[in-house]
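**Fold in tokens:**
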Amino acid sequence: MYSKTSKRNNRVKISTDKDYLRLQFPSALSQQLYGKRQFYKSLGRQDTPENRKWAENLAARIQADIDHPDIESLFDPTLKKYLGIKVENVILHPTSTTIKLQELWTEFADYKYKTGKISETTYKTKYTRTFSNWLRPYFDEYISHELAERIVFELQKQRVNKTNLRKMISALKEACDRSINQGNLNQHDRQTLQVN
């Protein structure tokens, strides 16, 4: 599929275009897979320290698949494997009012059920079983941008159902919005969580 010539020249890099981050693929890979002298993929995020760190982690994941001996089965040239679900900042900085994921999630799931916004079946199968099982390893952590990205990254590695993962991320966004409205999280510490 793709022949490796020089490690230095075959690195996925981060570059910018009009202050927006993008991935820059090695020329040899660009020519072989995309039929272009140089292939770029816009990430749709401005070049900030937080977004650059996210982009560097993304490039490292892609590079790890490119460098793997089984590149043909691991590397996804469509990039959906890496960009299937985007998580924007939920909470950027812990504050004295920041709460742990377990408290946020449990209270939110109970609220959705008690107010009739979800059925008993959805509450039992999705919110308290599937979603809670996915989130349980992170229950003792504070809500943060890094936590949201790590949850999505690790669940994608486990190849969980993407439709359910999107629903869970959407529910987490709603839980954060509700918590802000109740005064448990600070509005100035939050940006939106997006699922694409």
